[in-house]
Amino acid sequence: MVSRGPLAALDRPIDFRRYPASGRAAALVRHYWLVEYGFPPEGGTDVPILVYPACNLVIEHDKARLYAPSPRLAVQHLEGAGIAFGVLLQVATGSRLAARPVDEFVGDSIAIGENPAVARVRALMQGPGDAATRHAAAIAAFEDWLAQPVPSLTDDDLLMNEVAAAVEADSTLMRVDELAARFGLTTRRLERLVARYVGLTPKWMIQRRRLQEAAARLRSEPATELSTLAAELGYADYAHFSRDFAATVGPTPREFAAAARAE
């Protein structure tokens, strides 16, 4: 996400804001995440990216790209000054925008062609006015465009959105066969659907949710005994849990809990 746009240095280096999708856009978008940043010369930072099981569309000052989920922790380097208009899409929307299965570009991105809507979103993000006003205008412009390139959702699209929502919302789902049975699917059928829409596996989706659940628990209860937490999440030992946690969140569970205690 390196970008050298025309923004002056901000009062703080990174201004990150999230906005919910509403109305008709909510069927296609989970939420918007908008970033403005400004670092002094020779300054910058690496930002770990929380990976959701869905594609992100990102418009910056010099490009617009559709990013597929990655099986590993993603890190973006920010320097200079710039903007990012980010859209976390519903699971089904990414493959519809890409016009191809997500497993064909998993862990990678594809360019979104320059068009008047992209240019307008970019201009509104960098225009006059306070951040909230500019962001609302940019989101409205994006939603005017989004309804056009995305065809009507199919039954499989709607099913996959429901599967993803169930994984995110239900912490009792621990196994792929349980998830498949809930939706009346064979395990193989579920695996094919997830590969097409997410590019990864149902096991990865469940594991990612468990590890984010672990992070939330450690943030609110940093004194939690880590081996016990690992067992509650279905891990046979702490070492395996620690390795997966670091690959998804960044720090190890011990490091994450220590940081939470220090806050």
UniProtKB/TrEMBL annotation:
SMART domains: HTH_ARAC (SM00342)
Keyword Ion transport appears in the UniProt entry: no
InterPro entries documented for this protein: AraC_XylS_family_regulators, Homeodomain-like_sf, HTH_AraC, HTH_AraC-typ_CS
Protein name: Helix-turn-helix domain-containing protein
Keyword Calcium: no
Keywords linked to the UniProt accession: DNA-binding, Transcription, Transcription regulation
Domain called HTH araC/xylS-type: residue spans: 157-259
Source species of the chain: Gryllotalpicola daejeonensis
One family name in Pfam for this protein: HTH_18
